[in-house]
Amino acid sequence: MRRRLAVAVALSVWLSLSSWAGRSFAADRVAAPAANGDPAAQILVLLRAPPPHFRPNATYGDGYDDGLGRAARRRVAARLARAHGLTLVTDWPMPLLGLDCFVMAAPAGRSAEAEAVLLSRDPGVAWSEPMHVYSGQSAPAAPNDPLFRAQPAAVQWRLADLHQMSTGRNVLVAVIDSQIERNHPDLVGQVQVDESFVPGPPVAGEDHGTGVAGVIAARANNGVGIAGVAPDARLMALRACWQLGPAPAATLCDSLTLAKALEFAIDHRARVINLSIGGPSDILLGRLIDVALARGVAVVGAYDHALPGGGFPASHAGVVAVTDGPVEGGMTGVYTAPGRDVPTTQPGGRWSFVNGSSFAAAHVSGLMALMRQGGEKAGRTPVLVTEKTGGGAIDACASLVRALGSCDCACARPAGVPAVGRD
Fold first, then answer.
1. 228 or 390: whose pLDDT is higher?
2. Residues 36 and 140 in one domain
3. Which of 43-47, 196-200, 352-356, 419-423 has the lowest mean pLDDT?
4. Any residues with CB less than 8 A from the CB of 114 and at least 6 apart, and which?
5. Average pLDDT, stretch 290-299?
6. Number of domains in the chain
7. Is residue 329 pLDDT above 60, yes or no?
8. For residue 366, is pLDDT > 60?
9. Do 179 and 325 sit in the same domain of this protein?
10. 307 and 228, same structural domain?
11. 11 lies in some domain
């Protein structure tokens, strides 16, 4: 009987996932992994916590605050859920913000947005907001021809010259995205930290995250594939997004998975955070990004041409917004980087061409890692240099020279900077 039940459950899950293969993506109503439920029906409720006993590098979990305080806030959350006819789904402590986050689900036929407004009026609630959904900013792939050796950055950014000055050695870059294939021939040894914040069983590798990771830090001088912009950077593979169906497939994330990954990246001292996603503005994610920026972390976001201001997080103050092409209306504060017909890593040990702002943002995250290697030693904050003030095409060479404070793109490698790659 137990075996029959297990088979029935597995079949049910398979049929549920398979049904997504032919669907088109609707930004306001998509399915998250089964353990999360439907994000479109969920609400984030933030309750204030007393100042925690902060311990650097501590693992918080249930122990970051006193047990009685946590239990009291759970009771408050349960009371609110009952009073509003909601279901309490899960909770997550966020000591960086002095908050506990509770996820509640609205019943069918009721608006999560309206419930969030009502919950925000309760004096015990810091704020409440509907769960938001974000999507990877990739465009349709180029024809699946054999890998072409010339990467756009090799010419446009003079990548070989940049690597004579910096390779991003040991700079920690958090890739908050779908699962990176760690054992890809061009990514072996590049991932220092691998964590998933998406419910459900682990996966080996997903298209979007693996592609972004390759642009940033694919191995150099290993005789295969491509060279990342920062081939000696170390990656934090933080899975906050999931892939729907086989390639080409939508890549989706939600507020809670992204918040967990952001907090992890900040807590574990990432120096660059890559967010190749786009979606609606979100208070919780905005607060966490502000914490990252206040700690000197470079946060890079992909510009979404379909959303006002490029969507979130690209539109958030302090985030480096990057696109792969011109922005309508001549909007300032948006940078352009290579993002079309870019060869990069893909699951299954493959390489393929990709397009979109996601991969333009990945180029800039790699460039930030190059600048961090030299710029921080000189006590300087990395600044992108462009042909025009206020954004536009990045002069990668001038940006790196400014960060290093010496040399130029045609000179020999400065003393103390190792040759590209480790082979």
1. 228
2. no
3. 419-423
4. none
5. 96
6. 2
7. yes
8. yes
9. yes
10. yes
11. no
Sequence letter at residue 323: T
**pLDDT tens per residue across span 203-240:** 999 999 999 999 999 999 888 899 999 999 999 999 99
- In terms of residue numbers, what domain contains 69? 27-131
Q: Is residue 361 part of a domain?
A: yes
Contact by Cβ (8 Å): 257, 241: yes
> At CA 354, angle to CA 350 and CA 357, rounded to 5?
140
Write the CATH number for 339. Answer: 3.40.50.200
In order of 6, 157, 164, 224, 374, the CA distances from 221 in angstroms are 48, 18, 13, 8, 22
For 281-385, strand residue ranges (E) read 298-302, 320-323, 334-336, 342-346, 350-354
- Whole-angstrom distance, CA of residue 39 vs CA of residue 24: 17
Percent pLDDT > 70 in the chain is 77
CATH of the domain at 35: 3.30.70
**Residue position matching structure tokens 């001549």:** 330
Q: Give domain status of residue 240, yes or no.
A: yes
In a domain, 45, yes or no: yes
Q: In this structure, are 262 and 121 located in the same domain?
A: no
Which carries the bigger pLDDT value, residue 18 or residue 48? 48
Answer yes or no: are the C-beta atoms of 240 and 194 closer than 8 Å.
no
Catalytic residue numbers read 177, 208, 358
